[in-house]
């Protein structure tokens, strides 16, 4: 419920926010087997992707932390408040950058817009499992048919 009362504000200084989250806000991190951190964003971080990915990989290796990104409707040229960001990227470039970042953190990317879900690692995984199940089912059906024909 508290999330509904939040207002969008701040910058895209990803490294500063991540440092605060892992160095200050993760209380008793050694007592937990694993932890997840969700980044809710509308655009690319101010810092270069390779710099963010390297930091994320180092931090996440230090303790079992996964970074997941929920990328909401990327607006061309401005952020959600109409302010031109310090670093610009197209919607596709933004998604590609976050894909690289979450891979460094063994996390997942979810990209949503007004038209629905553009990309989601969870949905991709589910579809892959369904395809495997369908293929297995077809092989089983073929095997059963071939056994019937032999009898």
TrEMBL record:
Report the superkingdom from the record: Eukaryota
Name the record gives this protein: VWA3A protein
Q: Which organism is it from?
A: Notiomystis cincta
């Amino acid at each position: 419920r508290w999330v509904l009362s939040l207002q969008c504000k701040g910058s895209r200084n990803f490294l500063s926010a991540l440092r605060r989250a892992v160095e200050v806000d993760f209380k008793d991190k050694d007592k937990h087997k694993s932890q997840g951190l969700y980044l809710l964003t509308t655009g690319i971080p101010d810092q270069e992707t390779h710099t963010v990915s390297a930091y994320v990989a180092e931090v996440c290796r230090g303790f079992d932390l996964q970074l997941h990104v929920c990328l909401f409707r990327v607006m061309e040229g401005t952020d959600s408040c109409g302010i031109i960001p310090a670093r610009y990227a197209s919607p596709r470039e933004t998604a590609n950058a976050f894909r690289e970042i979450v891979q460094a953190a063994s996390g997942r990317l979810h990209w949503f817009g007004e038209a629905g879900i553009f990309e989601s690692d969870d949905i991709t995984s589910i579809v892959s499992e369904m395809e495997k199940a369908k293929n297995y089912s077809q092989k089983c059906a073929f095997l059963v048919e071939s056994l019937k024909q032999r009898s």
